[in-house]
Amino acid sequence: MEDRPQAWLMPMEPGRFADVTVDQKGVDVAVSLRGPDGRVRASIDSPNGSRGPEPIPFLADSAGTYRLEVQASGEGSYAVRIGDVRPATAADRTRVQAERLLSEGEALRQKDDRTSLLKAVQRAQQAERLFRSLNRPGREADALVSQGESFYSLDDSGRSEEAYGRALSLFRQVGRKVDEIRSLNALGRVQREPERALELYREALDQNRRLGDREQEAVTLHNLGQAWLRLGETEKALAAYEQALPVWRSLGKRYDEAGTLVKLGYLYQNVGEPEKALDLLPRALAIFESLGADRDAAGTLNALGNAQAKAGDLEAARASLDRALAIRRRLGDRRGEGETLNDVGWCRILQARPAQARASFEEAVAAFAEVKDRPSEAMALTNQGWADAEMGRARPALDAFERALPVLKEAGLPDREAMALLGIARAKRSLGDLPVSRKAAEEALGRIESLRGKPASLGMRASFLAIKLPYYELYSDLLVQLGENARALAVNEESRARSLLEMLSEVGAVADPKLRAREAELGERINRAAAANADAELRELLRQQDRVQAEIRLARSPAAPRPLTAPEIQRQVVDAGTVLLEYGLGRERSFLWVVTPESLSTFVLPPRARIEQTARRAAELLTVSHQTLARAESEATLAELSRELLGPAAALLQDRRLLIVPDGALHYLPFAAFPDPADPEGGSPLVARHEIVTLPSASSLAALRKEKTTVPAGTLAVVADPGPSPPLQGRGTRAGEGSLPYAREEARALLSMAPPDRRLGALGPEANRRTVLSGRLANYRLVHFA
Question: 681 Cβ partners below 8 Å, 6+ apart?
């Protein structure tokens, strides 16, 4: 940004006309004209970015020297053209009036409140008519773009699309290629159908790459990310945003960089990775606040509150959302207000305040209805239904879901459609209509499965699945109610096995050497950042590594095995000496499936909250169970869990090997230490009578057995007892990261069982990330971490 504007002096006589234009060549300029008395006579900053003309024709109202001032923003160049200076004609006076109206409209549009935007539309419409009467199609198109921008800010997508479409035709007529690309982007932005938006953005990107305009390339890439996201193509959206970011930075376009950061933040939180969003959104907020962009700052605060809520920090979330709501109400932004009220409602749901949540959702419905945004209104209505369901009001909830569903389907929003279908399934089950409930649950899962395959990043796919577990949970519960226990077990497997099966399918797959080299380089940088405790850098490098691994996966697209059905588990996983115990924790009730080659039994257990509360207490007590005062309580808690989790199946265990697939907080528990439910005295641990294997899923064991791998030469590697973590800057040792009691003794005992030349012991300082990622552990059949 130049500190001072450049100036040109022009002596003029009264009544004379000067045709002045500033041609922008990669730099955005604002142009002003001052009279002999120093007052501004005219100014212009057209909505054409950093390329195109900024005309400022003027009439001299008095004799003297006029001063043309040009203020440039960013890197690039511009040229000042002073055309005819002559006695003014009627057409000249009309043209000056048209330019003044357009300039006034743009100034009003920048104020960004509803009243100013409506006035901006009026000025731009008057300018459009005058430019048309003068047969100046290029400026007529500029006036239409100004209208389109104002209508867009007013949430009137129909009139915005009409204005942009007419502008596009005129830009093509006069051969203004950059503005043609800009209009294609604007048209795509207001499309209701994401497929149509995608067509427009692809056309814009193709034209832009022939033209070589980097700014418009970044604009188009950002917009492509939006379109891909609406279609559920998460990985393609992420790639588009990541390509746009460095272009914005190289051009010094801080406002646009912040906009792309916000979109990335929304993307990450929507696939279940709010921590990544929390790395990006504060950076965007700082930029918008420094630029005084209140509307954008409010949107970023909304996204930040959403991410904070999903990360579990509800107090911070409410503070961010309250700030966003205050700004949006001050600006008269009803659509934005509805968006924030929606998220406030979800905070209240998470705080177990469904009545207050419903009130927020009702306000959101009214706000969206006012601005005629039917898809957003339907989404708020779906949320209202969930609040009703939380209060046990099944019929009002069902009504809300059924009203919202066709609108969401028509708008092409499969994730929201799935949410409404899940709500219908819950409401119908509460009302006793199990067949219709099942049908709705199956349709909801179909929508989720269609989206789930879109992210290429395995971590992102796993996170996406984790936030969609309620769909599988409800469906498996319904199947048990309907007596379809085998199908219920298969659904439980589908909910937990997919991501690991996909990972296993990629072992040994061939990838582009350049991508592999990039992955290795990032691995080294990650090790250095971890050693230096550079937390922010480490998180950014891990995000980049995730992206590279996603590119590798997209390039080879291996076919992952599908999860097993119950009969397949009986044939491929268990045998006469083995029994599978698979747990599925649910909100209303939980299940234990016990599988042998001859039988499948299903047992109903208490709800998730009760089981997990006891499980967490047991895990905490076990860490101090060597202390006399804690030992009795620890033993009693383990006995309670044994009765609850193993007792129903005690008769089926016999002396068999136990394959245990835990769920939720059950992963924290050492089942081997549970009292044997078959021991009437309760004194012997489960491991005394059973060999115990813990698995992420039954299907993963079958997949591992099929892998054709070379048996490593080494027997055992042990990575144990790293000791306390170094303190972070300004902080002490991290909670829970001190030495693990008896870890070193355990490690030495295990290592003593393997021959010296076939074992690796990485203890103390050697038990670090570098050792784990070095590749050395691949030489050993067994790897033990403590």
Answer: none
